[in-house]
Design goal:
There is one protein chain. This protein is mainly alpha-helical. It has a single domain, classed as Butyryl-CoA Dehydrogenase, subunit A, domain 3 (Up-down Bundle). The protein contains 7 helices and no strands. Helix 5 (58-69) packs antiparallel against helix 6 and helix 6 packs across helix 7 (85-99). The longest helix has 17 residues, at 4-20. The protein is globular. 16% of the residues are buried. InterPro entries: RNA_pol_sigma_r3/r4-like, WH-like_DNA-bd_sf. This is RNA polymerase sigma-70 region 4 domain-containing protein.
């Protein structure tokens, strides 16, 4: 997205949407993951075809954003995405491997 103003607008819209869906979020096994998914999908609607999201699927790109851009620990990032730290680390590792250049043997 690249703009603090647009980011703030999107975040406010997602918080409003989450408020409207709060009962549904509370019925899930991870309200945090429900909220993250809303935000990630809304941001995805505005993403350009550049950067990580052009190269990786949404969850892989989100894992790298949470870990490296936002600085969350595997425990925190996994919680945000509704997965165990070990599963988060597998996703993060898969994303990093996908970014490596192919090696011809």
């Amino acid at each position: 997205m690249g703009s603090a103003r647009i980011g703030t607008t999107v975040a406010r819209a997602v918080l409003h949407e989450l408020g409207d869906r709060w009962d549904a979020a509370l019925r899930t096994c991870s309200p945090a993951a429900y909220a993250w998914n809303l935000l990630s999908r809304r941001v995805g609607e505005r993403r350009t075809e550049s950067g990580l999201h052009r190269l990786l699927d949404r969850n892989e790109a989100d894992a790298l954003v949470l870990r490296y851009k936002l600085g969350l620990s595997p425990l925190e990032a996994g919680h945000a995405m509704g997965m165990t730290p070990a599963n988060f680390e597998m996703l993060r590792h898969r994303a990093l491997l996908a970014l490596l250049p192919s090696r011809a043997w």
